[in-house]
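Subject: sequence -> structure tokens, single chain

Hey, anyone have a minute? Need the predicted structure for the following. Not urgent.
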Amino acid sequence: MKLVILGGTGLIGSYLSKNLVKKGYQITVLSRWKEGTEGSIKYVRWNPETIGGWLEVLANQDGIVNLVGESIMGYWSNAKKIAIYQSRVGITQKIVKALEKLEDKRPNFLIQASAVGIYGDRGEELLTENSHSGTDFLANLAKEWEKAGMTATNYGIRVVIIRTGIVLAKDGGFIANLLPITKIVRKVPVIGKGSNFIPWIDIEDEIRAIEFLISNRDMDGIFNLSAPNPVTVSELSKLIAKTITGKERIFHIPSSIVKLILGDLGKAILASQRVIPKRLLEAGFAFKYPTCESSITHLLT
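Reply:
Had a minute. Here:
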């Protein structure tokens, strides 16, 4: 199977491309920075702001995986919000426009990234793919992002929207950011009270779920990519601390300070999203790491 991965040099994309190559997929990665061949992966430079030479790269492919999106970390100035929006909604619109131009050379499917941020701050409410969306910046962003991707269905393309949670991996993301300070102070920092739910997923299960959705041609629409057992930030942090230091040692950073320093991003970090992957489970997908304990143990020991 021939696939093009956009955003293939990020945490999820790099794991996905390497995993799929091992299973016999022909992978081309569109990248702003890399070019050439690395192992069995072909990298092609592209400018996502305009539809140019990369259009032909998409032609006659079996599918496309779009994971493009600028990091949301950092203070959300107006310029930062615009960059976050354009890197998701704007680029996805460009990709779909390119697919329209391909006509009889279009791929069969599009795996389109989204995020659990679409649900907003929901406390202890159990959230599935059928739950209504929130109204904050990230929720509105995700709605527009998904809308842009779903437009590809107008051209006979199977579209799968993956609402990904917090990805747990040793060499990137949430855990990688915690490890340096934890190893120094022997405690894990917790923002606020830590009672907010965090929709997490192990990197291996993230990749396995995406491949599952690629392989099953009858799968389309929205899927939550998060583990079936969401936990609170405090619970996750204590588990990480115990695994690293042998004790459940954490320290709290007052939410007021976080909101003051990070503004709207601080509010987003403190949001509670108790998400479950209802549609994945109903489709028969089996998580390798369904609990936080199993994930953290294999990642940090």
